[in-house]
Amino acid sequence: MLLSLRLLRRIAKELPRYGKLTYCLYRDPRVPQRNKIALAAAIALILNPVVDVPLRLPVFGEMDAVALTVLAIRMFVERAPKDVVAEHQERIALGTSIFDQDLRESRAGLQSRLQSLRERGRLALTRRQAYR
Of 31, 50, 85, 129, which one has the fewest beta carbons inside 10 Å? Predict the structure, then answer.
C-alpha cells in the first residue's frame, strides 16, 4: 500500500513535466513522424470506449487508462532523439519551451479578445474589475 502511494505521488509530480516535454517533442520537427503517429494511435486506442478493461473493478477500471497513457508517453519520450529531449528538458526548466511560449501567446490572445469584447460592450466587467 505504501509503495502504491509513493508511486502515485511520483506520477502526480512528474506528470506536468512529462506533459510539457511530450507537447514540445510532438511539435518538434526533429522527432520522427512515425513516433508521433504511434503516440497518437496509442492515445486514441486507450481512450476508445470499445477497448475496456473490466470496469466492474472500481478505481482499477479507470486506472488502466491512466497507466497505459503514461506508458505510451514514456515510450514516446524514450524513442525521441536524446539530444532533442535534453534540449527540451533544459528549455522547460528555464521556462522558454515551446509549451511556455504557446501558453503565453494563448493568454495574450485571450486577453486581447476579452478586451475587444469589453470595448464593444459585449462583455460585462466583474465587480472587482469595475472598481479598478
Answer: 50
**CA 115, CA 117: separation in Å to the nearest integer?**
5
For each of the chain's 132 residues, which pLDDT tens digit applies? 455 777 777 777 778 888 999 999 999 999 999 999 999 998 888 777 665 555 555 555 566 677 778 888 889 999 999 999 999 999 999 999 999 999 999 999 999 988 888 888 766 655 555 555
pTM, to two decimals: 0.70
Distance between CA atoms of residues 7 and 12, nearest Å = 9
Residue by residue, DSSP assigns 8-30 as HHHHHHHHHHHHHHHHHHHH-TT
Sign of torsion over alpha carbons 100, 104, 109, 114: positive
Query: Hey, what amino acid is at 120?
Result: R
* Cα distance between residue 44 and residue 60, in whole Å: 20
E strands of the chain, at which residues? none
